[in-house]
Amino acid sequence: MTKKSGRAARFISFEGIDGAGKSTHIGFVADFLQRRGINLVTSREPGGTVLGEKLRDLLLHEKMHLETEALLMFASRREHIAQVIAPALARGDWVISDRFTDASFAYQGGGRGLNLQKMETLEQWVHPDLQPDLTFLFDVPLEVARARLNATRALDKFEQEHADFFSATRQEYLRRAAQFPQRFRVIDSTQTIAKTQAQLVKILNELLAVSAPLD
Predict the structure, then answer these.
(1) What gap in Å lies between CA 189 and CA 141, rounded to an integer?
(2) Phi and psi (nearest 5°) for 133?
């Protein structure tokens, strides 16, 4: 764990099916932490780098073989770690990422049905010693997520998937949360924004307490 002025750097990821509402709260969390003196970097996956953003455009809009999709996701992630996440943590900064590897397990593993052992192999290859310190999983019933998406904008290829895809994606997210309860915090995203943010503040204050300067 890296340190800056005695404070441990932290890596926070935001997860959830499309329409779960996670993006609404990333800015809130970033502002909350910055007002408490935390230097941080916010980023997203796929993307986060010049190369990653080019891959993002392909991944969100081009049809491709399932394994090609998974490999490109991890290629983008490898670049993201090398260019953004690892340097920020080494400086002692905090990192907030809109999605990380849990999303690949959920979408390519759960939704697409790719063998999870292959996902685990890629995970161990690309970042064997790196996991988020805290993962917010915004969970919401499928019908609520679909209604939110349909009210916003033109949908990418993932957002256009059928209900069975999103049901399997959601279940894999919940399986991951049960497998790694020490870092996951499942947020009921049907709550009001005010109630959700109050819950986020409580969790963040607990994280800040254990990340406090040592001197």
Answers:
(1) 9
(2) -75, -30
Q: Report pLDDT digits (tens) over 77-122.
A: 999 999 999 999 999 999 999 999 999 999 999 999 999 999 999 9
Q: First vs last Cα of the chain: how many Å apart? A: 17
The pTM for the full model equals 0.90
> Could you tell me how far CA 144 lies from the centroid of its own chain?
20
Paired tokens of 149: 């998406």
Is residue 166 pLDDT above 90, yes or no?
A: no
Query: How are beta strands 134-139 and 184-188 bridged, if at all?
Result: parallel
Structure tokens at 70: 């998974």
**Residue entry with tokens 């690892």:** 86
Q: How far apart are CA 141 and CA 2, in angstroms?
A: 38
Q: How far apart are CA 26 and CA 34, in angstroms?
A: 12
Q: Report the C-alpha gap between 133 and 131 in whole angstroms.
A: 6
pLDDT tens, residue by residue, 24-83? 899 999 999 999 999 999 999 999 999 999 999 999 999 999 999 999 999 999 999 999
